[in-house]
Amino acid sequence: MSPPSTLEAARHAPCHAIGVDVGGTKIAAGLVSFPKGEVYSRRQIPSAPARGGDAVFADVLRLCEELAIAAQAQKQSVCAIGVGVCELVDLDGNLVSENCIAWKGVPIRERLSKLAPTIIEADVRAAALAEAMLGAGKPFKQFLYVTVGTGISCCLMLDGKPFTGARGATGTMASSPISIACDQCGHLNLHTLEEIASGPALVARYNQLRHAGAETGQAVLAAAFAGDTDAVRVVCSGGEALGSTVGLLVNVLDPEAIVAGGGLGLSDGLFWESFVASTRRHIWSDVHRNLPIVRAATGADAGLLGVAAAAWKKC
C-alpha cells in the first residue's frame, strides 16, 4: 500500500512549482515537476543575511524570475511558488521570528504572488515533507526529521504531514540553554545545543582550541578525519550532545525512525558515529533503542523539494 503522502499527492494535478530554500548560509532554488518530484533547473547563491531582509528578498525574487523563464523555455507554466525559511512560521504562513532572516512583517507572499500563488513554510517542515514524499521517510507512518547544519531543528512527521503544534512554532530543539550545573565546581552551562553541535559551533570551538582559521564545519570534520586531536574532541562532543537531545525526543515521541539531514546530518565519519551512538545510549527503553537512524535521501535538495511540494499541494 502506498504511504498516505503519496496517495494525497496523487489527487493533485501535474504542474511545475518553484521551491526556494532560504537558509543562514545559502539560498537554494529549483524548478520542480510534480507528481514525480523531479528538479529540472537549480540555482544556488550565498544568502548573506547580514545584508538585511530586503537584499535577501531581492535575490529570492530574481531566482524565481529566472526559474519562471526556464519553465517558459520548456513550454511549461509555474503553478505555485514555495519559500522555506529558517525561521518560525505560524499556521497562516506568517514569519513570527527573525533570528537569521529579517523578513518579519515583510509582504513576501504578496510580492512573489505576482509571479504565481506563493506559500511560506518553515524550512525544517519543508525538508521533512520531502523525505516523507520522496526520501528516506517514505516507509514510515511517523518519523522524526532532524536537520543539522548552520542551525539545528526538527520536525515530527505524522501520516505524511508535518506536526505544526498549536501555533506553528515547532522545531526549536536546539535554541534554549541546556542549563546544567556542575556538581564539582557549580559552573552553570548556559550553552545551547546549536552552540555545541551546529556547523558554526564546530568551527568556533575548534578555532578557539587550535587558534586556527577553519571556516566551515566540513573543514573541522576533515581535520578530525586526518587525526587532529582537537578536531576529534570537538566533533565527537558535538555528536554526543546532539545524540543526547535526539535520544530525549525519542523517549518523548516514540517515532518509528530518525531521519537526519543538513550538511552535518548527512556527513560520514566521527560526527555521525558519535551522534548515532549517543542517541541510542540516551534512549531509555529497549522497545525503541534500535530504531532506524538514517540519512535523508533527498540530500541538499530536501528544502526546495519539500516547499515546492507544499506549494503544489495547495495550488
Structure description:
This protein is of the alpha/beta class and 315 residues long. It contains 11 helices and 12 strands. Strands 3-2-1-4-5 form a 5-stranded mixed sheet, sandwiched between helices. The protein is globular.
N to C succession of SSEs: HEEEHEHEHEEEEEHHHHEHHEH
Strand order of the largest sheet: 3-2-1-4-5
Structure summary, number of beta strands: 12
Largest sheet: 5 strands, mixed
The unreliable regions are 1-11
**Proportion of beta-strand residues:** 15-25%
Average pLDDT taken over every residue: 91
Structural class: alpha/beta
Helix content: 25-40%
How far apart, in Å, are the first and last alpha carbons? Answer: 26 Å
User: How many H/I helices?
Assistant: 11
Report Rg.
Answer: 20 Å
Overall geometry? globular
Secondary structure elements and their pairing?
Elements: H1 4-9, E1 15-22, E2 26-34, E3 38-46, H2 53-73, E4 78-85, H3 108-112, E5 118-122, H4 123-134, E6 142-148, E7 152-158, E8 161-162, E9 180-181, E10 188-189, H5 194-197, H6 199-210, H7 217-225, H8 229-253, E11 258-261, H9 262-265, H10 270-282, E12 293-295, H11 302-314
Helix pairs in contact: 4-11, 6-7, 6-8, 7-8, 8-10
